[in-house]
Amino acid sequence: VDQGESEVDLPADKPYVFGYHPHGFIGEGIIGMGAFATFATESTGFSKAFPGIKPHLLTLASNFHIPLYRDLLLSLGICSVSKKSCTNILSSGPGSAITIVIGGAAESLAARPGTADLTLKRRLGFIKVAIQQGASLVPVFSFGENDIYDQLSNEKGTTIYKMQKTFQRLFGFTLPLFHGRGLLTYNVGLLPFRHPIVSVVGRPIAVTQSDKPTKEYVEQVQAQYIEELVRIWDTYKDTYARERTR
Questions:
Q1: What is the reported pLDDT for 107?
Q2: Average pLDDT for residues 12-17, to the nearest whole number?
Q3: What is the torsional sign of CA 213, 216, 219, 224?
Q4: Which residues of 165-194 are buried (b: 16+ CB within 10 A; e: fewer)?
Q5: Bridge partners, residue 80, by sequence
Q6: What residue spans of 121-214 are helical by DSSP H?
Q7: What are the residues whose beta carbons fall under 8 Å from the beta carbon of 205, sequence distance 6 or more?
Q8: β-strands 150-151, 178-179 pairing
Q9: Is 52 left (phi over 0), alpha (psi -120 to 50) or beta?
Q10: Phi, then psi, of 219 in degrees rounded to 5
């Protein structure tokens, strides 16, 4: 990740829910590069930018069943994305924070260099958790996340797409058939392409705490969240996404 960029200060007197976009190619099992670098390491200087905020990047619970990989995740403060885990972290005191990679399998299958297609409209669970815990919502958009790998053509209706969706129904996640560069060749391999990732942390959205928020209020907060996410894109796309195809 080349850098992180924030527009506002986040006081450490409340909990936060960071929503990370886009999902990228490898977010399901290995966690997206930008999310990992920004919220599980100090490569972008998170603790200096937001002193007192203690972020926990979240991933699928199934990742904690893999020997050694589980220990690596735990050593970096990465936790399960289950509702119980979210609640425990956010209720641990001021400055506690979680980061959820929102788009899921559907978004990873749509990831392509030069694009930023998000799956968000039906994603209400993380907003409901934030309201129940009185946590401010913070959209994060990483320019370049979709540019470090490419994947085989898998448009809707193709055999590859059908196989990936079947895999998703059976196991709860899917596997994009992606590729990057190799050690000796730039066209084929599993190493990421050389491309900067810039993570922009947006403005926090305050919520009114409610144990049982109405659907209308959840959707109202979601509309504010989407509006801020679109603002981030419109503000920085000509700086950090000059090679976008749409």
A1: 76
A2: 97
A3: negative
A4: beebeeeebbbbebbbbeeeeeeeeeebbe
A5: 59
A6: 125-133, 159-171
A7: 136, 137, 138, 139, 221, 224, 225, 228
A8: antiparallel
A9: left
A10: -70, -30
pLDDT at site 183: 83
The maximal CA–CA distance of the chain, rounded, in angstroms, is: 56
Which residues on neighbouring strands pair with residue 141, listed in sequence order? 21, 200
- Mean pLDDT, the chain, integer: 88
What share of the chain in percent tops pLDDT 70? 94
Angle between helices 125-133 and 215-240 (to 10 degrees): 110
User: What's the one-letter identity of residue 221?
Assistant: V
Using the predicted structure, report yes or no on whether residue 3 has a pLDDT greater than 80: no
Exposed / middle / buried, residue 52 (Cβ in 10 Å: 0-12, 13-18, 19+): exposed
What does the alpha-carbon distance between residue 29 and residue 120 come to, in Å, rounded to a whole number? Answer: 20
